[in-house]
Amino acid sequence: MRVLIVDDETLVRKTMQSQIESPHVVSLADSMEEALDILDKQVIDLAFVDLSLDDSTDRIGLQLIQEIAKSHPTTVVVAMTGHDEGPLVETCMKAGAVDYLLKPFDRTTLTQVLRKAPVLHRLLRRNQTLKHQAGSKLVQHINLYTKSPAFKAVLDTAKKIRGANQSILIRGESGSGKEIMAQYLWSLENDSSRPFIAVNCGAISGQLAESELFGHKKGAFTGATETRSGKFESADGGDIFLDELATLNMDIQVKLLRVLSSGDIYPVGQDVGKKVNCRTIAATNENLEELIKEKKFREDLFFRIKNFTITLPPLRERKEDILDLAHEFLRKGNYGDKHFSSQAEALLLSYSWPGNIRELKSAVEVASVLADGNELQPGDITPHLVQSAPVYEEVLKNHSITEIDEKALEGRFSHLVSEFELKLIDFAMQKKGSESAAARYLGIPRSTLGDLRRRLAGIKK
């Protein structure tokens, strides 16, 4: 644990330091000012605070306890005093202390506090995490099951990196379950007190991103009426999940690189770095390699963030899981006796799901609410698909291969498929106007679309 001893008597500080053995890391302060300076520079897990830090009767230590409880709520505070006064004990507890030591105390007493402190620290961390998640769905431990060999390989990789503190990059198409995978990685650590702080980078403006991620000091800018911790400090001891990583501007990327390299955050308005210890899990559906070539993403950050890389397969490559997922969405939605007809199940299996799991969930939920009968039919589902009914209802019709012109097909399978791919791409480009938008519309990575356009370019000639 990271321990801070605050006492104006040198002998007390040095004696306590000598009695606290490795792996605990001890910092010393002889005043409230020095203590707050240390707290600004690093996250402290346990603080011993003497109530009488000077010769006055103001009990400066009590003020320090109140400040720690307000600005560093996950720090366990133990008060120390040479006066055995009942009302003073109650005052300390109300100020934010969790324990009270009467000086002089022996090594055994100190050791007992050190043994209890990690449990108390986890409780304070958990409490703070719940406050951060107030108003949103609480993070729960999850377990993932699959019949898909492709996704089983992903889960096996996730289990192998359990316990590692290096950063993790989750890649995959939109809607493929990147945040669920981040929560699964957190769940594998099997520690409910471990913070999980999720940040949607695409939802915060460039001007606010620095303060949101790294915090700010009081008076750092107009409206900064009090010191505030950022997401990285809130994630200390746990995981921070940065969704839509590629949307961060280049200035923030530089600051993020510094955090990943040294563990130091620099709150806005503070010149001295502050140590934090959290694992960074980032996610993107963008082609970072292409963005690096376009000077829109830093190459050094890319290599720093992808110590471990987990690539999620799209749902169309997890067909073994489609029906299980669909039935699970039905069950969780409490839609009574609603169930899929065999034709509806055939549609679910034949559709390519460009929006992946998110699209499947939405289609099942909307169809279940709007369908008149209990048995869901293809017609109940197709209106709610990204690639809507006309295309897929035709695909489901039982056309015989003999209806195709045999001479037109003979020896030209690859060419005909390429022609159809080209028509799809041209249609998407005309409809959406750019490669990125067209790729999202078709449900394929942008790099794949670019490769297809180059490969098929000769067909037009």
Automatic annotation (TrEMBL):
SUPFAM superfamilies: CheY-like, P-loop containing nucleoside triphosphate hydrolases
Domain Response regulatory span(s) in chain numbering: 2-118
One GO biological process term: phosphorelay signal transduction system
Molecular-function GO terms, alphabetical: ATP binding
Alphabetized InterPro entries for the sequence: AAA_lid_NorR (IPR058031), CheY-like_superfamily (IPR011006), P-loop_NTPase (IPR027417), Sig_transdc_resp-reg_receiver (IPR001789), Sigma_54_int (IPR002078), Sigma_54_int_dom_ATP-bd_1 (IPR025662)
Pfam family, one: AAA_lid_14
Sorted UniProt keywords: ATP-binding, Nucleotide-binding, Phosphoprotein
Keyword check for Nucleotide-binding: yes
Name of the protein in its database record: Sigma-54-dependent Fis family transcriptional regulator
Species this chain originates from: Bdellovibrio bacteriovorus
